[in-house]
Amino acid sequence: MADLTIDNVNKFYDKTQVLFDVSLSIKDGEFIVLVGPSGCGKSTLLRMIAGLEDINSGEISLGGKVINQLAPRDRDVSMVFQNYALYPHLSVAKNIGFSLRMRKVEKSIIDKKVADAAEMLGLTHLLSRLPRNLSGGERQRVAMGRAIVRDPEVFLFDEPLSNLDAKLRVMMRNQIKEIHYEVKTTTVYVTHDQIEAMTMADKIVVLNGGIVEQVGSPDELYDQPNNTFVASFIGSPSMNQIHGKVVSEKGKKYFQSKDNSLFLLPENANISEGQEIIYGFRPEHVDINQSASEDAINLKVKVDQPTGSQSLVFANVGDQEICLDVPKSHLLKPGNEFKMSPQLDNIHIFDSETGKRI
Amino acid sequence: MNKNQGSLLTSIYTIIALGITMIFFFPLWWSFSNSLRIPKETFTVTGVGIPFINFTPTLGNWTHQLSFPEAHIALYNSSFIAVISTALAIVVGLPAAYALARFRFRFPPNKDITIWFISQRVLPPAAAVVPFFVLWNMLGIYDTKFGMIIVQTTFIMPFVVVIVRQTFLDLPIELEEAAMVDGATHIGAFLKVAVPLSVPAIAAASLIMFTFAWNDYFFVSVLMMKNFTLPIYIAGGVDSRGVQFWFIAVRTMIAVILPLILCLLAQRYIVRGLTLGAVKG
Question: Best residue in A87, A94, A154, A158 to probe B by mutation, most B CBs within 10 Å?
């Protein structure tokens, strides 16, 4: 068991830089999720930890030992690939036992470990099958089995669930978490799906364009996003972000949007009158109609999307569309007017130029 | 044709295809038929030469030919040279194919190296034979099986490089990466994952290479004397007594049998192997 440290790592493909001074420290046993849009460098970083990509500068160390120059086989990491990468010519048992055979482990021990891993993943009845005769979920579990059978220092997951259907994905999410509780191996998990990140991670790393935007627990990222990118990336539906400036009226500070709607700002906010800001609030952090405050603004429903007990209501503030996640109501039908006020405790203010949290 | 087997169009296509096949295979059939006739019947048989109907077959030509040591020498030399050349081409060509598929060379770039391999097949053999003759004489390997194996290997290796390279390109690279993370060296990933998964393409390439080495007449005719192979032996049927069609027919049949058996054995691989490179599966 060991800590994984990534120190000022840079990566170039020819002359294009894809990772910029990435530093992370991952404690033993932590479940870290790297999340970001496609092309943000998250998979590249994972592959650098695995040893499948060169490191142009910086250091990656495992248990205090720099592993930059080590071949993948000497790093004691195991990896689950997006397309599972099962060896098509080998049976499930041989697939799971491959790494042990490569390490010349005794046959009786291999058989036992393979049987244990298969038991854990419910694959026992499939051990003699070839990968092509398995369903997507079963293949996924074989790929997991291949990773856990070796008892490595670090698990690496590269979007392992993206090829599964929605229902199976939720199931596998649980299974991966369960396995992590059981084996407590340090895990680095890459995904572009923020829900996967929120539900699974001890700590999330948000990457964008090769830069680490924010590192924190799912709650930290949700409650205190560092900047507008993290704010819009974490949470579904995305946080509403309205451009405008700060004005003062009757001794209170207000946010004035481009169409002159006024939103009350928290008193302790560190902003001055006339400052250009981005005013952010999550769709679920609003009060409407009777429960709305006296500073509520009037909006007209554009579209409503019922999601069961709740309803997603879309409306325009000026020319900017906002989304509200509110209890379903017959009053919120297209064309109807309603009152809305964002909850004062859950307002996020960002600098309009840098996008950084104020 | 029965209606259940397809539309009228399919039947017509099948008949045309059969007709074309029969035209192309007729010389081979004629050789077979001829090998079973006594010499004087070579030109006198009527019909299409069906044994027992158009003539009384005899194994005389076969027993006569097979009792001569020349036939054994030719068969042995041909087999030895073709098998060893093919094996050598695979041993040397597979790593080349893999390197071209998986590594990026800057100078010369991968594309140029691949083209260079193909150019060996484009080059007219006549352009290369004189240098080979001079060199082989200097090296003392003129008229040896060893010398011939080197020549054949040189000229058949492009097949394995080009065909299997494409197969390697089509293999998901994650398979080898997974093997390397799982504890294999790069060579281990190549041998344990990439090669086993390319067996169909390797089988197809081997068969093509074997056939080329087996059939080669030109290089053997120039670079060998006492050590001859089957094609030379077949041509030897023409002598001062004229063309001995009956013996040539037997020798041709002998020359056809081995590749034919290999073809049948490797059949299930070949069709897949030949299309493997072209179509992503």
Answer: A87
